[in-house]
Amino acid sequence: MRILALDHGTVRIGVAVSDELKMLAHPVEHIAPDPFPEFLERLKVLLREKEVELIVVGMPRNMDGSYGEAAAKVRVFVTALKDAIQVPIRTWDERLTTVQAQKALRQGGRKGDTRDRIDATAAAVLLQGYLDSIAS
Length: 136
Prior knowledge:
The chain is α/β, with parallel strands linked by helices. The chain has helices at 36-49, 69-84, 97-107, 115-135; strands at residues 2-7, 13-18, 25-31, 52-59, 89-93. Helix 3 packs across helix 4 (115-135). The model has no long low-confidence stretch (mean pLDDT 88).
């Protein structure tokens, strides 16, 4: 069984999945959040294919730890997900995941990466943080 992470955005939702040992996160793809029924259809396929036991959704926080407008949108998204799927869902602090993803792609020599690759990599950064926290 694996853990799947979602990096929520208004244009794209980055997706990453853990290995079966829940040690390493791997970027998978991005999914358009709208229309929501099509997003759910694709997500359900991934949940089955990857044998997912938990979904971790990035919760945006301000640098001082407070929650802002983006967090309110994620809360609505998580509520809709919980109503539509049976897999347990939890949120995880996603501060600076996109910055870390861009840095990792640059360091890997990937110039001109698309926003799509950054979103999936940000989901992997988010998931790796979660995996590291449960390993200790």
